[in-house]
Structure prediction request, 232 residues.
Amino acid sequence: AQTVTQSQPEMSVQEAETVTLSCTYDTSENNYYLFWYKQPPSRQMILVIRQEAYKQQNATENRFSVNFQKAAKSFSLKISDSQLGDTAMYFCAFMKYSGGGADGLTFGKGTHLIIQP
Amino acid sequence: GAVVSQHPSRVICKSGTSVKIECRSLDFQATTMFWYRQFPKKSLMLMATSNEGSKATYEQGVEKDKFLINHASLTLSTLTVTSAHPEDSSFYICSARDRVNSPLHFGNGTRLTVT
Prediction:
């Protein structure tokens, strides 16, 4: 079984600052995917960024980037130039590779990120 | 992009009644859909995996007879909360993927309140 740990229940930064959310995971799988999802007050789950474990290069999506350390089983999210709209719950999630596509996601407990004006 | 529609968004029911929640993939076929439950300020917990044309796979601790899942077509899965009680009040979210190993696409969720 996989576990995902987010050790920061809440974080608060000023607008335009850079913030890093931490995530560690435990698995015996070698092929897997990692995700960061954002859940604003509307509670809609929005995919922020995705990382394939077989790729050494860290994924980036505009202001969002990850620091993926496979050996350390660490997957942190960096948000640059933070904006008020970034205020949300952020969930780190794990999915093992499955040829049949029948595997769901295992989520961490989440980090509540607050961007202060 | 792939869209998952969930209905209703909110439902209030009396204790002892049953409630059905629908999850539809609008522009893709989903042989597998996933049902999650989320308590306030908590994470998403996988309840069950819904498989088209076969029985759902439930996670440990989830009552199969209370949470009935039907996946009768490639675009529709339903979750029925039977004989609902106040402790079943929660936020239920369905999800699906449009192709193998792609990220999950989530519905907007259903807030269930049992009085």
